[in-house]
C-alpha cells in the first residue's frame, strides 16, 4: 500500500495492536521518510510528542515489525538497521557502500518469492530478500570513473570510464 494511502489507525487495529501516541508518531515518521534509522525516528517522534524514551521507540518498532506493519532492513555491515512501512510488495533494496543510502528496487517477477533456491531443505519458501550493493551517484564521480572518498576504511576505485 502506498505510504500516502496508509491509515495508521486501521493498520494497528487490524494487527490487534493498541492505538497509542508513540505508535502513531512512529508510523507518521515512516510515512513521510523511508529507510530511516531508530535514532532519526526517535528524534522526529520527540519533536512531535516531547519526552519519549529510546526504549519506548525500540519497543514500538519491534511490535510494528512483528506485526508486519513495519519492515526492518538490516544490511550486513551497515552502521544501523533502517525501517520502512511494510508494503508487502516483494521489493528489494540498493545500498550505497559509501553513504549507506538505501533505495527501493522492484523485483523482476511480481510474485513472492521472486527467486527460488536450488534446494529448499523442506522449507516452505514465501519470500526472498535481496540487497544490491554499490555506489550511489553522489559517491561516484561519473566524470573520471573513480570513487571520491573512503568507503568503510577501504579506498575504492574503478577502472571503468564513463563518457
From TrEMBL:
<keyword id="KW-0408">Iron</keyword>
<keyword id="KW-0963">Cytoplasm</keyword>
<comment type="similarity">
    <text>Belongs to the Fur family.</text>
</comment>
<keyword id="KW-0479">Metal-binding</keyword>
<keyword id="KW-0238">DNA-binding</keyword>
<dbReference type="InterPro" id="IPR036388">
    <property type="entry name" value="WH-like_DNA-bd_sf"/>
</dbReference>
<dbReference type="InterPro" id="IPR036390">
    <property type="entry name" value="WH_DNA-bd_sf"/>
</dbReference>
<dbReference type="InterPro" id="IPR002481">
    <property type="entry name" value="FUR"/>
</dbReference>
<protein>
    <submittedName>
        <fullName>Fur family transcriptional regulator</fullName>
    </submittedName>
</protein>
<dbReference type="InterPro" id="IPR043135">
    <property type="entry name" value="Fur_C"/>
</dbReference>
<keyword id="KW-0805">Transcription regulation</keyword>
<keyword id="KW-0862">Zinc</keyword>
<keyword id="KW-0678">Repressor</keyword>
<keyword id="KW-0804">Transcription</keyword>
<dbReference type="Pfam" id="PF01475">
    <property type="entry name" value="FUR"/>
</dbReference>
Amino acid at each position: 500500500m502506498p505510504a500516502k494511502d496508509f491509515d495508521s489507525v486501521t493498520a494497528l487495529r487490524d494487527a490487534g495492536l493498541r492505538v497509542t501516541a508513540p505508535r502513531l508518531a512512529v508510523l507518521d515518521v515512516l510515512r513521510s521518510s523511508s529507510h530511516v534509522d531508530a535514532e532519526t525516528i526517535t528524534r522526529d517522534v520527540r519533536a512531535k510528542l516531547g519526552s519519549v524514551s529510546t526504549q519506548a521507540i525500540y519497543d514500538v518498532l519491534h511490535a510494528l515489525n512483528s506485526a508486519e506493519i513495519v519492515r526492518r532492513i538490516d544490511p550486513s555491515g551497515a552502521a544501523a538497521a533502517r525501517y520502512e512501512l511494510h508494503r508487502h510488495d516483494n521489493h528489494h533494496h540498493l545500498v550505497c557502500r559509501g553513504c549507506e543510502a538505501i533505495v527501493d528496487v522492484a523485483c523482476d517477477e511480481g510474485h513472492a518469492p521472486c527467486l527460488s533456491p536450488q534446494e529448499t531443505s523442506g522449507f516452505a519458501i514465501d519470500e526472498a530478500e535481496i540487497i544490491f550493493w554499490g555506489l550511489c551517484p553522489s559517491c561516484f564521480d561519473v566524470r573520471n570513473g573513480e570513487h571520491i572518498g573512503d568507503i568503510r576504511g577501504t579506498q575504492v576505485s574503478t577502472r571503468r570510464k564513463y563518457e
